[in-house]
Write a structure and sequence with these properties.
The protein has about 180 residues and is of the alpha+beta class. The chain folds into 2 domains: about 5-75, Orthogonal Bundle (Arc Repressor Mutant, subunit A), CATH 1.10.10.970; about 100-180, Alpha-Beta Barrel (ADP-ribosylation fold), CATH 3.20.170.30. Helices cover about 30% and strands about 20% of the residues. It has helices at about 5-20, 35-45, 50-60, 110-115, 130-140, 150-155; strands spanning about 35, 65-70, 75, 100-105, 115, 125, 145-150, 160, 170, 170-175, 180. The strands form 4 sheets. Strands 1-3-2 form a 3-stranded antiparallel β-sheet. The protein is elongated. It is an enzyme of class 2 (transferase). InterPro entries: Ptrans_KptA/Tpt1 (IPR002745), RNA_2'-PTrans_C (IPR042081), RNA_2'-PTrans_KptA (IPR022928), RNA_2'-PTrans_N (IPR042080). This is Probable RNA 2'-phosphotransferase. Its EC number is 2.7.1.-.
């Protein structure tokens, strides 16, 4: 992704996941906003945005952070919201036996005590493979990848959801379901 698209992707993440009000938009409860409204508000706040640029970001974003509605009129972040107005209704799914969580070594002591918690987000994010989890961990410092016994959690009543971009979501992961290598 080139620098301009990367900058737009970060802007969209900020607006669609965390602070839509900074440009005067309101997301619906499933996180959607009309693309034309988003463009108009972004431009009014000095952020040049076009439909073509949005479509390029959605198409080329390696993390598949954004989803355009089937009718092509709306956009949303696939997951990762911290704004309280968004409560995407994901469909519960049975997870694979093991999923992975990428974090930094500096958080391990806390995780060993309290497990994985959502923090300011709605859900704990889990990856289907170690490579992706490691990339996530690298964003926070020296990476470490934790294995999560997700099927065992599911069998004990924990709920799992699969976001549009393939990220698995759950409310929390108690430390008893974590494998520390």
């Amino acid at each position: 992704m080139n620098k301009q698209l990367d900058k737009i992707s970060k802007f969209l993440s900020y607006i669609l996941r965390h602070q839509p009000e900074t440009i005067g938009i309101t997301l619906d409860s499933d996180g959607w906003i009309n693309i034309d409204n988003l463009i108009m508000q972004a431009n009014q706040h000095g952020k040049p945005l076009t439909r073509k640029l949005i479509e390029q970001v959605v198409k080329t974003n390696d993390k598949k952070r954004f989803t355009i509605s089937d009718d092509g009129l709306k956009i949303r972040a696939a997951q990762g919201h911290s704004t309280q107005q968004v409560k995407i209704s994901y469909i519960e799914q049975m997870p694979p036996e093991i999923l992975y969580h990428g974090t930094a070594t500096r958080f391990i002591d806390s995780i060993k005590k309290q497990g994985l918690v959502a923090g300011s987000r709605h859900y704990v994010h889990l990856s289907g493979d170690e490579k992706t989890a490691k990339k996530v961990g690298e964003r926070h410092g020296k990476p470490v990848v934790l294995k999560v016994n997700t099927l065992q959690m599911y069998q004990q009543g924990f709920k799992f959801y699969l976001a549009d971009n393939g990220v698995w979501l759950t409310n929390a992961v108690p430390n008893t379901f974590l494998i520390f290598d």
